[in-house]
Amino acid sequence: MKKITMHVVALLITQISLAQVAPVDENNLAVGGYDVVAYFSGKATKGKAAVSVVHKGATYHFSSKENKAAFRKNPEAYLPQYGGYCAWGVAEKSSKFPVDPETFKVLDGKLYLFFNGPFNGSTFNSLEPWNANEAELLTKADNNWPKIR
């Protein structure tokens, strides 16, 4: 019984880590509650509801009061590109895909989020093709975003 329980727990953790989120969910929570300032330190960190800010109708959670203060000072510096949708999806498919908030890249002081989860029977991490052809995809995404926003 202990072995079964451990397998179920491992499966649930895997599914949670592969969960995709909308940039802003039905409760107006942005980026699945992840701290958008923390990404700039190189780590995806879940924020706390007690340390939050509402910006343009969306609620952002932060892992610290310092991150909250930094966001309040200059929110535009920390907001993900392309409205928080998958950068690869905007570039390659001219579409808005949800993201895995733990799959991200900070490039030239800008935050990019990516899809990373089940797709057509296997796992697809859109950060991989993005990294393989970043310069071209960045240009395509920048050109596509105004049309699909």
Quick description:
This protein is an alpha+beta fold and 149 residues long.
Tell me which oligomeric state these chains represent: single chain
What's the end-to-end separation, in Å? 50 Å
User: How big is the Rg?
Assistant: 16 Å
> What portion of residues belong to β-strands?
15-25%
Mean pLDDT rating? 90
Q: What is the N-to-C order of secondary-structure elements (H for helix, E for strand)? A: HEEHHEEEEHH
* Biggest sheet statistics: 2 strands, antiparallel
Low-pLDDT regions: 1-17
Report helical residue fraction. 25-40%
Described by the principal axes of the CA atoms, the overall outline is: globular
Structural class: alpha+beta
Number of strands: 6
How many alpha or pi helices?
Answer: 5
Going across the major beta sheet, what is the strand order? Answer: 1-2
Describe the structure.
With 149 residues, the protein is an alpha+beta fold. The protein is built from five helices and six strands, in the order H-E-E-H-H-E-E-E-E-H-H. The strands form three sheets. A two-stranded antiparallel sheet has the order 1-2. Strand 1 and strand 2 form a beta hairpin. The longest helix has 16 residues, at 2-17. The N and C termini lie far apart (50 Å). The model is unreliable at 1-17 (pLDDT under 50).
